[in-house]
């Protein structure tokens, strides 16, 4: 049994008290951005979004009034005419949060001893970080045929003569 009399032990209530209230947030988490975009751009209700995301409707409603959300609203209003650029900007802005989620999922896969997922995720993360390049796909060499068609009023085939020379590239590995 753990000693709970230590003065260094922090209760969950004390830890939670350190975080700002939802309506006072100065920064947004990735799920906040998704919820706000769904609410403002797609007109979904706070209750519907909360149900889908496993949050409280009052949390979503409070979130719409926080300073960070109001800055996002101004940005969305400005960019609403170009949805493709808006999607790119949102993906770029949320990339850190998504990457952190990816690393967390990797840790869960390790704890679950899911070696197939761990192998794939570490390969993807290494490629994402530039540590390991994704190997290019191997192309199969095939013979090439060139057909030259001469149009005319005769069906006779004419022989065409051409000269050619095989060139070997010294830098080529094949």
In words, what does this structure look like?
It is a single chain. This protein has 174 residues and is mainly alpha-helical. Among the domains are: 18-93, no CATH class; 95-133. It is built from 8 helices and no strands. The chain has helices at 12-17, 30-42, 46-53, 57-63, 67-79, 83-93, 95-111, 115-129. Helix 2 runs antiparallel to helix 3 (46-53), helix 2 (30-42) crosses helix 5 (67-79) and helix 3 packs across helix 4. The model is unreliable at 1-6 (pLDDT under 50).
Give me a quick take on this structure.
By secondary structure, this protein is mainly alpha-helical. 52% of the residues lie in helices and 0% in strands.
**What is the ordering of alpha helices and beta strands?**
HHHHHHHH
Strand content: under 5%
How far the N terminus sits from the C terminus, by CA atoms, comes to: 68 Å
What's the helix count?
Answer: 8
Low-confidence stretches: 1-6
Question: What is the secondary structure topology, with strand pairs?
Answer:
Elements: H1 12-17, H2 30-42, H3 46-53, H4 57-63, H5 67-79, H6 83-93, H7 95-111, H8 115-129
């Amino acid at each position: 049994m753990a000693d709970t009399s230590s003065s260094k032990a922090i209760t969950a209530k004390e830890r939670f008290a350190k975080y700002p209230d939802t309506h006072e947030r100065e920064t947004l988490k990735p799920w906040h951005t998704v919820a706000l975009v769904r609410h403002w751009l797609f007109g979904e209700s706070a209750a519907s979004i909360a149900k889908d995301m496993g949050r409280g409707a009052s949390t979503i409603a409070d979130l719409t009034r926080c300073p960070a959300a109001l800055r996002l609203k101004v940005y969305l209003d400005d960019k609403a005419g170009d949805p493709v650029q808006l999607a790119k900007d949102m993906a770029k802005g949320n990339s850190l949060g998504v990457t952190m989620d990816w690393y967390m999922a990797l840790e869960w896969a390790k704890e679950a001893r899911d070696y197939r997922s761990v192998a794939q995720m570490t390969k993807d993360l290494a490629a994402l970080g530039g540590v390991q390049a994704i190997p290019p796909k191997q192309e199969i060499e095939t013979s090439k045929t060139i057909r030259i068609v001469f149009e005319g009023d005769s069906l006779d085939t004419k022989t065409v003569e051409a000269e050619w020379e095989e060139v070997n590239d010294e830098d080529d590995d094949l």
